[in-house]
Amino acid sequence: MIGDVQQLAPIIKDDEWNILRNYYESIFFFSSKALKKAGFKGIELNHIFRQQDEKFIELLNKIRENKMDKEAYQLLSDRHIPGFRPAKDDGYITLTTHNYQAKEINDGELKELDAKEHRFTATINGNFPDYSYPTEKELILKPGAQVMFVKNDINPEKLFYNGKIGKITRMTIILLCKMPR
Predict the structure, then answer these.
(1) Is residue 161 part of a domain?
(2) Are 20 and 12 in contact (CB under 8 A)?
(3) What pLDDT, on the 0 to 100 scale, is given for residue 6?
(4) DSSP E strands: which ranges in 44-144?
(5) Residue 174 lies in a domain
(6) Domain-embedded: residue 1
(7) Which end of the chain, C or N, has fewer beta carbons within 10 A?
(8) Distance of CA 151 to CAs 116, 122, 131, 134, 155, Å?
(9) Are residues 144 and 122 in the same domain?
(10) Is the pTM of this model over 0.85?
């Protein structure tokens, strides 16, 4: 298993936790007796790739570890700009609580672009529920659209990573045809 298991805390109701606290040390799955019995070993990676500013990294870790102090709160408050609306070309992203909200925003931004749209339909092998797909089954892209990678580059060059943001500057469609031998 690979992932940031502390990225989002599990949602649990008080009455459920009152029952489960007798069996779990925390609300996270890695506190289960089954996982401990299976002998899983945790490995924590400590290099952050998406941020360079050490102060900001320290702040993010305080949030992640639920160790906020007055200084951290003040740092966040100092950066808060009420009514902030970035310019279209600034490259900001909007964090949402639900995928449907992100889809509404993305669809609206895509609609505003005056460029030809290209549709790409996924080929799915096997039986998987829609919610397990890394993206929409049909991707609609246009030049000028801001995009975010949802997978890491497996090539040695590592040109992109999950979460990297870019802008489509041009699109070239290449068709590969299998020729009979």
Answers:
(1) yes
(2) yes
(3) 64
(4) 118-121, 138-141
(5) no
(6) no
(7) C
(8) 25, 15, 16, 8, 12
(9) yes
(10) no
